[in-house]
Write a structure and sequence with these properties.
- With 584 residues, this protein is of the alpha+beta class.
- It has 4 domains: 121-208, Beta Barrel (Thrombin, subunit H); 224-320, Thrombin, subunit H (Beta Barrel); 327-431, PDZ domain (Pdz3 Domain, Roll), CATH 2.30.42; 447-582, N-terminal domain of MutM-like DNA repair proteins (Alpha-Beta Barrel), CATH 3.20.190.
- The strands form 5 sheets. Strands 2, 3, 4, 5, 6, 7, 8 and 9 form an 8-stranded antiparallel beta sheet that branches.
- Residues 16-29 have a biased composition (Polar residues).
Length: 584
């Protein structure tokens, strides 16, 4: 492959937890990372040496492990679907030691839990998926297909729930029941990217014969026993692991690049457990396993999507016939813990709240809220100076939890303090659109080609395709700034860049232009990729003049550029000069 060249950009400081809502899902770096919630990673290693078979006598495994942790071990949030017979995250060798199994078998409490869960285990299915991902660097084609396996479970209405990342970019999905040798073709009904849940169904009546459904339980409390059931790596039959609820809080969803309510448990969640149910001691489902924490200083930390999030997804689908997403308040806010800051903002001693820093211009609340407003309450629930609200006895949680309980299009009452006066507003909530989207949501990437210049819209999958797992360090600084901080000024605004230049005689001297934003064309601003394609196609001027970032310009003769495009497309076997969505 040649020597690795460092791309433009510089390595930033370790991101703080406050920026997690804008830090998208990344892949795992090969160096140790500090123990920070900001290190949200994904591992793709289909050919692990730990899983490969060697010749000769098999090596005996010790009954216990006291070997030192490898220096290369690092903290990883991982999506847990097995890929190509291997896995996204190879579990620690110590995770399934015989010592742990003996201790669990000896505890009568876990025996009681397993006995109650046993009837519901027949509702757990194995999910087989063939994925075909778009090629964001060469948007006119797709990557080589690959397969994965994960878990799912049956709910009422002849439906099956699993994780969204288990069927992402799916081409074919099949399900297999416990104890069966038949795989049934499944249809994907809805994919909730933000909450990492997908809903499937099977048309074949034979699949549903004798199939029982899973019943949902209430949100568990701390130290409640949970049992995770699924088909993880290490075998083909169903697997059961047990633990307790360790923490309940708003946490980062790796796949969704969002923050929603989640459960932390100490039951082992390994690759392939994705989409499997977590049962309480009554045999009711209290969540869906979806990610785990891998770090040299942490052991047995898994995460479960709780029933409030699952119920929201199901009711959203039943209400609208499709998944519409979780609404969000389109603001950035600041804590008001400093007493001088509260006094300067005109807050009374008995008033608490958070200050609005910025408002998304495309959000409906931008019509009534203003920067420096103090949000005192949301839907009648008072907000503390640190942005938390009462949750349960002895617990507090971020006030975004209240927003996530709403549906897109719902109304909410907000009380704000403005210039020492209290105002009450009714706003309509909608899902949030980022200037640089975190997901393509199954849509193929858009592109436009003229004279060898490949124009495309920037997204997180595109940055990952161009700069790899360390795109947050390697991508151009200006693009990263827009990714983290920029807000769209209109609903259809995009960041359009010159992805690459397909070398030809007409573009001599422009070959080195890579991933540079296009800000204008012939004196007009570029709003999005479709507007750029429309202006270029309809241009009758003698020259095409593109204004790029860093004050660069590209000038081409119009007739020559359009004539050369056909030859360039034929040379590179590109079927069309623009994607289908730009032709309409």
């Amino acid at each position: 492959m040649g020597d690795h060249k460092r791309k433009r950009g510089r390595k930033p400081k370790t991101p703080s937890p406050e920026t997690l809502d804008t830090a998208p899902n990344t892949a795992t770096a090969t160096v140790d990372k500090p123990f920070s919630v900001g290190n949200v990673d994904l591992i793709e290693n289909p050919s692990s040496s730990r899983l490969s078979r060697r010749r000769g006598r098999p090596k005996k495994l010790p009954n216990h492990s006291d070997k030192p942790v490898s220096p290369a071990a690092e903290r990883r949030f991982t999506r847990t679907a097995i890929q190509n017979g291997a896995d996204f995250a190879v579990p620690n060798d110590d995770a399934g030691s015989p010592t742990a199994v003996v201790a669990m078998d000896a505890d009568p409490a876990w025996e009681s839990v397993s006995a109650r869960v046993l009837p519901a285990m027949d509702s757990v299915v194995k999910v087989f998926c063939v994925h075909t991902e778009p090629n964001f660097s060469l948007p006119w084609q797709r990557k080589r297909q690959y397969s994965s396996s994960s878990s799912g479970f049956v709910i009422g209405g002849r439906r099956v729930l699993t994780n969204a990342h288990s069927v992402e970019h799916y081409t074919q999905v099949k399900l297999k029941k416990r104890g069966s040798d038949t795989k049934y073709l499944a249809t994907v009904l809805a994919i909730g990217t933000e909450c990492d849940i997908a809903m499937l169904t099977v048309d074949d009546d034979e699949f549903w014969h004798g199939m029982s459904t899973v019943e949902f339980g209430d949100l568990p409390t701390l130290q409640d026993a949970v049992t995770v059931v699924g088909y993880p790596i290490g075998g083909d039959t169903i697997s059961v692991t047990s633990g307790v609820v360790s923490r309940i809080e708003i946490l980062s969803y790796v796949h969704g690049s969002t923050e929603l309510l989640g459960l932390q448990i100490d039951a082992a969640i390994n690759s392939g457990n994705s989409g499997g149910p977590a049962f309480n001691d009554k045999g009711n489902c209290v969540g869906i396993a979806f990610q785990s924490l891998k770090h040299e200083d942490a052991e047995n930390i898994g995460y479960v999507i709780p029933t409030p999030v699952i119920t929201h997804f199901i009711q959203d689908y039943e209400k609208n016939g499709k998944y519409t997403g979780f609404p969000i308040l389109g603001i950035e806010w600041q804590k008001m813990e400093n007493p001088d800051l509260r006094t300067a903002m005109g807050m009374r001693p008995n008033e608490k709240g958070v200050r609005i820093r910025r408002i998304d211009p495309t959000a409906p609340e931008s019509k009534v809220l203003k920067p420096s407003d103090i949000i005192l309450s949301f839907d009648g629930v008072d907000i503390a100076n640190d942005g938390t609200v009462p949750f349960r006895h002895g617990e507090r949680i971020g006030f975004s939890y209240l927003i996530s309980q709403k549906y897109s299009g719902d109304d909410a009452a907000i009380k704000v303090l403005r210039n020492s006066d209290v105002f009450r507003f009714d706003i309509k909530l909608h899902s949030h659109r980022r200037l640089i989207p975190a997901h393509s949501k199954g849509k193929p990437p858009s592109y436009y080609i003229i004279a060898g210049f490949v124009f495309t819209a920037v997204s997180v999958p595109y940055l990952r395709s161009e700069y790899g797992k360390d795109y947050e360090f390697e991508a151009p600084v200006k693009l990263l700034d827009k990714l983290v901080h920029a807000m769209p000024q209109s609903p259809d605004e995009q960041v359009v860049v010159v992805s690459q230049v397909l070398v030809a005689d007409i573009n001599i001297g422009y070959e080195d232009i890579v991933n540079t934003q296009v800000v204008g064309f012939n004196g007009k601003p570029v709003k999005n990729l479709k507007s750029l394609a429309t202006m270029v196609e309809s241009c009758d001027d003698e020259y095409l003049k593109f204004d790029l970032d860093y004050a660069q310009i590209v000038v081409l003769r119009t007739k020559t550029a359009k004539a050369a495009t056909l030859d360039i497309l034929a040379t590179h076997c590109i079927p069309s000069a623009m994607s289908d969505d730009l032709k309409s």
